Amino acid sequence: MSCTDSRLHRLRTIVAIAALILGKAPLAADLLNASYDVSRELYDEINPAFVADWQAKTGETLRIRQSHGGSSKQARAVAEGLPADVVTFNQVTDIDLLRQRGLVGADWRQRLPHDASPYYSLPVILVRQGNPKKIRDWSDLVRPGVQVVFPNPKTSGNGRYTYLAAYAFALDQYKGDRQQAAAFVGKLLANVPVFDTGGRGATTTFIERGIGDALVTFEAEITAIRTEYGKSNLEAVMPSLSLRADFPVAIVDRVVDRKGTRKAATAYLQFLYSPQGQEIIAKHYNRVDDAAISRKYALQFPPVKLVTIEQAFGGWDAVTKEHFADGGILDKALLKAPAR
Questions:
Q1: Helix (H, G, I), strand (E, B), or coil: what is residue 214?
Q2: 83 and 32 Cβ atoms separated by less than 8 Å
Q3: Which residues, at least 6 apart from 252, have a Cβ–Cβ distance to it below 8 Å?
């Protein structure tokens, strides 16, 4: 051991002893969780629960910081240098972007249960008191004179799931006719008065600015909205068919290896699958695959016909090429919509 290494070792020992004398736990490095736009309240409860669990197991005090925004916008931020240790997004393609950039391992979906998605939700419709436009299903959202609010599918996973759920509904209604399905989502997009970049912005537009007859967002967000703004003023409408929105998570390998936080970051994501983590997730109206927790919270999750990305579209690769690539179905539908 060199003289410099010896001095560094003694300094670390002194710091550790001082922490013990003062009755303080040693401090682990901070973790940064880059997450989607409407997950704030969920992780406000998840984080202190995990910090307490981590300290009980390791004796270390851990700090967790949050970054929120549209899921795709967050993915680009991480790709461009946001030093997130973990990402908790709402669509697979956003983590795959980081995989393609070499930030996340190619096996990220195999590292955790359920393809690394600890919970899921679905797009649901929220209308104003009394449902004055008599909106009951996706077909009512394309009627002339109905204004629909949801975030931009270009920047938000929330918006993408809304767009894809409407397309899946149309495919079901039109017996697989893709041209009619494309025309259907074109009418839906034409009824959107303003596109926000993320789900929370769309909520603000609908609730606080009073724009639109219906808001489409995740089931968990709708419950949070009705709790915050008053159940009597808003009504949830469960469509006849919706799309399962899996919320994938991953360690940002390049960041944790540089910061030395892999152990804590791994434990953090694993905590989301623990009984305690699953219970917190379900309390915030996200659906989980844990059978016992699902039974416990069954009354707050009405039955709905759910289709998956694989069932309706053949998987995310097909969705990306056909719908979200430059010049794809989404771009063509947006071009036909009136300017905002």
A1: strand
A2: yes
A3: 78, 84, 85, 86, 87, 98, 103, 104
- Interior CA angle at 238 toward 336 and 340, to 5°? 25
Report how far Cα 100 is from the mean position of its chain's Cα atoms.
20
Give the helix ranges, DSSP H, for the chain.
3-21, 40-58, 71-79, 92-100, 113-116, 157-173, 178-190, 199-207, 219-229, 253-259, 262-271, 275-283, 291-296, 309-313, 316-319, 329-336
Q: Please check whether residue 261 is in contact with residue 85, taking contact to mean a CB–CB distance below 8 angstroms.
A: yes
CB contact at 8 A, 238 and 222 = no
- For residues 30 and 65, the answer to whether their CB atoms sit within 8 Å is yes
Q: Which amino acid is at 215?
A: L
**Among 314, 276, 275, which residue's Cα sits nearest to residue 291?**
275
pTM as predicted: 0.84
Q: At what angle do helices 178-190 and 329-336 cross, to 10 degrees?
A: 50
Query: pLDDT digit string (tens) for 102-158?
Result: 999 999 999 999 999 999 999 999 999 999 999 999 999 999 999 999 999 988 889
Pairing outcome for strands 86-88 and 119-121: unpaired
- Which of 149, 160, 141, 94 shows the shortest CA–CA distance to 329? 160
